[in-house]
Design brief:
The chain is elongated. The protein is built from 5 helices and no strands.
Length: 114
Amino acid sequence: MDIKSKVQGISPNVQARDVKALVADTHNIYETINVISQRANQLAADIKSELLEKLEDFASHSDTIEEVHENKEQIEISKFYEKLPNPVLIAIEEFIAGDIHYEFKNQEGPEHES
């Protein structure tokens, strides 16, 4: 996952959304929210692991309490991840763009009604 290219143009601020447009594909607000929240959880986990991987390079593994050294690269990396849009906002943009592929298991349509 290349988070830098994924968040290009996504505002980190919350915006009002047209609910009818969001549910156009699923026809159910709860299913839409489920798809978006599942993707947001995946994004959050990916972002967290990516950040931890990058910060691991700066970790000190000594047992003694020493002076804390400020590392400008570490600070820049942390600032970048702090400024990222919330994973939910990224997931909403992906959902609107049609970039999320999903299917519901055991979904019964009108032909399966009793």
